[in-house]
## 1
Amino acid sequence: MSRLLKIARREYLAYVRTVGFWLSIIALPLVMGISSSAPLMMMKSAKPERLAIIDLTGQGFAPAIAKAMAEDQDRATARALRAAALSSAGPAAQEAVRKAQLQGGDAAGREALARFNPTAAARFKPPKVDAVVLPPPREAQAARTPAEAGAIARREVGEKRLDSVLIVSGRDTDVTLDLWSRNLAAPVLESDLRQTVTEIMRERALARAGVSQETLNKADALKPAFNSLSPKAASGAKVALRDRLPTYVGLAAGFLLWSMVMTGASILLNSVIEEKSSKILEVLLSSASVPEIMGGKILGVAGLTLTVMGVWAMAGWAALIHFAPGLAGDLAAVLLGKGLVFYFGAYLVVGYLMYAALFAGVGAFCETQRDAQTLLGPIILVMSIPIIFMSQAIRSPDSPILSTLSWIPPFTPFLMPVRIASDPPLMQVVGTTILMAVTTVALVAFSTRAFHVGALATGKIDLKTLIGRIARKQAG
Amino acid sequence: MVNAVTLEGVSKTYDDFHAVRDVSFEVPAGRITGFLGPNGAGKTSTLRMILGLLPPTAGRISVLGADDATKVRERIGFLPEERGLYKRMTPIDAIAFFAGLKGVPEAEGRKRAMALLEAQGLGFAMKRPIKDLSKGMAQKVQLLSALAHEPELVVLDEPFSGLDPVNQQALEAMIREIAARGATVLFSTHVMQHAERLCDKVVLMARGRKVFDGDVATARCAAPRALVLEGDLVAEEVAALPGLGEITSEPLPEGGWRHVARLPEVGTGQDALKAAFARDLSLRRFELKEPSLHDAFIVLTGGQA
């Protein structure tokens, strides 16, 4: 085994054998999982609001509101079933479920899903009901004014027999809603109830104006057919989720590459600082050449980065196949079919090499984290620029500013993965890649020189002296 | 005699600072050579140039027959002045790792590491993390890391610094063992007693220049001998004695004075003693003091600390 590989192996094992490394691998997906599922879990665990409606209008608002809420729930269930079809079996299943729902309701929709993915159909659960409408207390029938009804509502909510009480008063176009709720900060049903009653008032006003119920229903059902089209779509016109997926994948890859490169380069920096401060570098320099030491360390930390990515990718893929096999299939097609995975791999390798060499070179001058912060501050500031522009690439991947920034080699590894999905001009892909590769080679050569000078340097050195010494390759 | 290391007119300049100026000397193969000098004399820079860690600004260096030590790095063992090991590694892993970098196969490296650790009484600690070892133990492990590949040339930069007297003695024994198996040892120090006990040859540096190159006995000649007189006699009485140079006096705890008088190069102090007896001076004890390497060091470096 060459010295380079021996140093790489030591570097890799030094981290992989620690409990902290595996904890950090688990920590990120765990935190992401908790943060994304926590709101859903909280919603699921919450009991439906117990709502009573005291109707003082004498115009049948209470049953109309209950009916509208039940219809809203049905629509939510139908939407959830179509979303489940899309994620578990793809766009064809979604369309089949939609057609089945139109003809035979949700039961037919579920049957249609079962034909594509029986497990998803069996596992499907309708969305949680936000509220159940309960009959108001008997004495509410005697209430004639909002104040009388309010006293009853105050008591029922205060004594926790009900979560919310809606008092509807007034007539026709002058209706007032008083919502008594236990939730002081953000009453759960406030916006839903306001919208529902607004709809009822609008329908009734139209009915009074002579518009028949049939016409109203027809008017409500009016909805333009909307087609999203693009010459870049796989079908040649109609845009499907699979057409949009590369852009989202590119954005995710850009962020992932940035964080992996930063993580890897930071690990390398810490490792070099540790060796510099504990005087191991001098012994290493007497045992191996600078390219062997730097190469070994960069390779070892690259192994760590790949281990992290590998574990996360496998866990993510397993979760995707389990929960959304349709999306997993589309993702695989996008990554492999468009060759994105090879672009991402190339940008990861070159980006990592560029920053790892730079951080290793800087680390050789630092005996403490504080030294490193002083020297790396401007570099990290520059590195954060692509992050600001990455999300813009979804809306306008070919904007002049993004195109220009992509030509700046330190930004290329992060911005081009985001843009690559939108098929930027070949000249830009090739040109930026060549420029990035040339810069990386130059940076590695410079960092190797800096590493040698820094490894043997002692005490504080001002920037001018530092650059002078690197130029002359003069340590001490 | 074959030389393991040869320096010819070597200089090293950092920016405007001349760390080493026109230094030439040889390190004979199979011998122990002490590289002496006060702090800042240019010892570490010279050793780094010998090891190929730093390029000389001028001059030529030959190490084990090569014009560049990096070409023969597998035949060299090095212990730097400031010690450091991977703190989470075990001694056996650390020694095997550094031996591996010098070309020793892993299994063989571990075997040698075990044998070396056992021989140094560190067998019980071979699988403990280095951070759990005492400073002395960790220093021994680092030295073993520099020796496990059985180098022909061993370069030790201030190997005794930070060691307690017991460990210093153990290290001296190890250096003798290394030389006994035929390896060349070059070590730097500013503690003359170690050099006096160990070295066949010493090279003395001061202010970046070589000020002496030869054996210990010759080095001692650089400092004058002295006549020590103890008793109730006072400095003026000693100064009046013939054939004595500069005199330093200090009071004795039990009363009286201790006078140390430098002798001229050819002087033996006999005339002074005869005169002291003739004058019936109150003399309790006298001694002709041969110069130590420390005395020679002070003289040769011009008293530079």
Note: The mean pLDDT of chain A is 84.
## 2
Amino acid sequence: MTAHARTSSYNFAYLDEQTKRMIRRAILKAIAIPGYQVPFASREMPMPYGWGTGGVQVTAAILGPKDVLKVIDQGADDTTNAVSIRKFFQRVAGVETTTRTADATIIQTRHRIPEAPLKQGQVLVYQVPIPEPLRFLEPRETETRKMHALEEYGLMHVKLYEDIARNGHIATTYAYPVKVEGRYVMDPSPTPKFDNPKMHMSEALQLFGAGREKRIYALPPHTEVVSLDFEDHPFEVQRFDKPCALCGAERVYLDEVVLDDRGGNMFVCSDTDHCESRRAEGLRGALSGEVAP
Amino acid sequence: MIPSLIASGLAKTFKMHLRGGIELPVITDAAFSLQPGQCAVLGGPSGAGKSSILKMLYGNYAANAGQILVRHRGAEIDLARAEPRTVLELRRETIGYVSQFLRVVPRVSALDIVAEPLVERGIDRPQATRRSGDLLSRLNLPERLWNLPPATFSGGEQQRVNIARGFITDHPILLLDEPTASLDAVNRSVVIDMIAEKKKAGVALLGIFHDADVRSAVADTIIDVTGFAPLGKDT
Amino acid sequence: MTVAAAKIETLDRESAALPLLSVRSVTRTYGARIGCADVSFDIWPGEVLAVVGESGSGKTTLLNCISTRLEPTSGTISYRMRDGEMRDLYQLEEAERRVLLRTDWGFVHQNPADGLRMTVSAGANVGERLMAVGQRHYGRLRSTATDWLGRVEIDTERIDDQPRAFSGGMRQRLQIARNLVTAPRLVFMDEPTGGLDVSVQARLLDLLRGLVNDLGLAVIIVTHDLAVARLLSHRMLVMKDGRVVEHGLTDRLLDDPQAPYTQLLVSSILQV
């Protein structure tokens, strides 16, 4: 863990206090109505849309000087997006950052939910590109809002029906729609459906920010989150036939790593912190000897 | 005996708006009644308004004046003033009609066309189809035609389908508009028998028959339409 | 009394009490221009009403007013809900209105693309209303869809094809299946045979006629085609310049037209 000197020419965490207050009000409303998309006056951030401007604004609004921040992209702490957002908050807020899930108070993520269960007091902030789950079949925003208001969610099943009709099973593997507390249908946005069960009854607070679309939604701790499905085609998460090649973990989300130009590959934990922690405990996978850690 | 139908003061005039509104009076002050178990026949030369009377009794032509009192569900209803919905109900339950020509419906088989009035009254389809087949065979319609739509049938074949459709129900009043016109002698006599059976069952019939033999075989009374001719009309 | 006759009796007694839909003095103006004026009628279960007139006569305005798509300037439209209560349609909550639209009512558009989802399969098009009312069993949805495709004479092999790949007649039949799958009591049809070839029209009309009889639907059908009205409807409403000029039994109106305009309309039909 490292603390950094804050660049004093910016307000703490970049946004001015009025803006942060506005965003916090939106967050409070979102927490009060789990799964409901609250509009907010999204600001221009010093990074392009698609780089997590929504998540960054949410993080900026809730960040305090004593918070410990972790940023992941595809589960990894060392990808460009994660590194630059982490550096951004180091400079404008001077907060401590970490790669260790257990040590973080706020975790901003683009795709994944960490493998280790989150705890009470932690906040998971999602960067969301498209918050509207109904947009697939109904492009009119006026209409989708009405559909949310009246709980008209038949269209979500039309989408799943099409999946089964075309592929024999529900082929949606990410942005898999969920129903929150039996009321609002919500798009977990680009997280893989593998992580959907982790949202259910999580001890952590989960906040979702969509910068370009100017929407915030939330799952307070201990919220019921049910993935939509059919009675005869129940929701299932992906299975991987091998454990992680480095740490031997099973029932975790794996990424393919190409090893050479002759088709050689291996599957390793997408959650780099999880993988490193396991290896630090001495756990080993099949290829751990051959690849530099 | 209580009459099944009493017409009084019945009048029909056609007003031709497309020809400067000229009026063609056809019937004035027609009055007659129909008794259960009897067949009345409308008499008079062609153009005297026999068909118009039949069509008014079925609600197909609007009467300009007068009453058509019909016993329906134990009450008396004036068909000349009834709501369309009531007229439809009367047609479904009380007044049957065999027209001169079959109105062909595309793609519906002869068997189903005949069975349709029963199905509309809630009889289940297999039973209705069975009775339809019985009637068609009685009227000597070759069985190979039963499952075809009658559009391509001969005039006589179409007419037999039409008769079967009109006779299949047990309406207490049955109107017949020249049902035997295009039939051969064998089928004419089948129709005469069927009319006799209707009478036995207490049905009140009113018909137009140009064939003198048929007329004398079925008629209990003749209603002479010339008596209802408007004044000044040269018929 | 046979069981069937008893069934009819109950049906009649129930339907005799109140109409399914009651339209009273409905007027819709567009500024100084009249869309439709002072239209009143009732429709009972199982009845097919044809609204006939040339384009601009106000029949589509009337249809839109009745089907809650266009609020009338004055007048009332009430509907007998499934619980038996007559309700003013324009006093319904938005939620109630929308439930009505996708369960108890159907709307068959002239252009099938307006009533179908062109980018999802035929099966999903038929199943959508069922999913909307909470059906969550893929196998049953699929067998219902298969059944309905058969009923509207679409090869069940095409269940996973999108309507984009269908002919005009097939699309129209698919639209009908999609509407009828929730067993609605009232179906609106706006020129359902318009724009189809004559032979395709005949097949569609025959199909509609059969479905309407079998399901006991009440239908309000807007058409300028008197042959369509003759074949499908019990009653007709003839409109001209936004007003009803004649209203009555279909065969009476066509065989013995009274109003000058109806006589003109009937005499204008080409005899084949």
Note: The domain at 5-228 of chain B is CATH 3.40.50.300 (Rossmann fold).
## 3
Amino acid sequence: MREALAQHIDLFLIIIYLLAIFLFGVLFRQYIKNTEDYFLAGRALPWWVIGMSIIGTNIGAYDYVGAAGGAYRFGIAQANYEWLGAIPAMVVSALIIIPYYWKNKVYTVPEYLGRRYKEGVRVIEAVIYGVFLVMLLGIFFWASGIMLHTYIGWSIGFSIVITAVVVGFYTISGGLAAVAITDVVQLGIMFVGGFAVAGVGFVKAGGVLKFFQALKASHPQHLKVFLPLDNPAYPWLGMILGLGLVLSPAWWCANQSIIQRTLGAKTEWDARAGMLFAAFPKTLIPILVVLPGFFALMFAPAGAIKNPDQALPWVVKNFLPPGIGGLVFVAFIAALHSSVDSTLNSAATLWTKDIYQRYIKKNASDEHYLLVGRLLTFAFIVFGVLFAPFTEKFPGIYVAMQTLLSFFQGPTLATLLLGVLWWRATGWGGLIGLSSGVALAVALSLFKVNFLYVAWWSFVFSLLTNAIVSHLTPPEPPEKLRGLVYGYLERDREFARAVERRING
Amino acid sequence: MGELLKGLPLYWAKIIATLLYLLLALWVITRPSHFIFRGSRERKRWKDLRLWALVLIGIQIILYLIF
């Protein structure tokens, strides 16, 4: 009886949620008139929508499961991915990088790099991230199918199609505006679900202090944020150098699906404030993803959890009362959808703006590119649905794709930072620095070097190569660098003379 | 170098992380006002992004000192 009631509540919550986000698509369709509306929400997003949408995009269902598993195994060191591995980079992104994207009115990160360096850099970046985002969709759809099958009992195929129809509908019809607003709602659901789990856990333990005292007594290492150098997953030096100084800035400064929200800001201040505002909920994410791992560690009977990734499903299935379990399940689905919609919209933007408009059909009408953007979004949904079952046959495919991404993160960051901060970096410096850094990252991975160190050394190598090649090649002309490089206006003599003339009347 | 670092007590990791946060805070404080408020119609106190960043960094330092 109790189980049947719980199932009905879960089903009711999920149907209400699916209907609500479907309506968003209908509501926002009327506002889409051109590509700027579709890809950048008409450059009208306020800071608080940008901030919440960034975090909704950032946290996916895989993060929930994987992070709870990481906390179950290694403890609060897992929170480094939300703290040291995010907050400093978000501050740097807001105060240095984002103003340059926003001022130049670009649609994509590769577009900025192409203007700053040369077309080759734009093509490499666009293809890498374009392919990565499209492949990621298949994995997201499969995860959605598995979740709905496990909790509601729908077949995996039907669950995937339902997800594709609902997310596809509001993404195609409402563009970035619909994606960003649904992200806000989805983030709210995620936090309500996360706080509900925390509340239930602490009540069961007899209070917050009692819980942490018991955890400290039984698992003292689990409350240490840094782990020794011989830890296989989270060595402290790798966390600071690889995660804190390379992977995290690369993610928060150069990832299209994150940056795209700030490009849709109504003012430069909103763009920067949006990124900083996102850092506040980001600080609280460990409550959502680390605490369930701790609850599983403290409350699960011995032998109940064989794989750390089962920590969160165990908590949802065995720990929560009816209704709360359904709420947390809806929070999972919301987390997954907020990642799928953003990935779809960003992939369509990259392929339309950086590849199609640049190399396949130049100078067509804006209506044409809007249609292409929508058709590409639809094509990626179809590809994602068809590709989804293959991810089951390759269970390591998600890990493989993350490893693949780590090949590019360090060199991309080096190219971006030198491009923004150093006027002397040249087109050839950027191109050779980027490609040689990727080559080194691949070589290091073949020698089984920890991916955190791969990111660090490929970043350093790419930075040095870019600097050396730039010194050996002629500087870029001032008219090319204007507005693209930090502090360049002070160096620009022509601009200084123009200002002087204006001051002197 | 790896052997040398292995000999360091774990609290050095906390010291390095805290120093990095303090350096970032120092950099944030030195950002000029005209840059911080660019794009905003009014210069209200709550719109000063340096304060937002400093609160975030302060929370981080506290968290890393606790854990």
Note: Residues 12-66 of chain B form one domain.
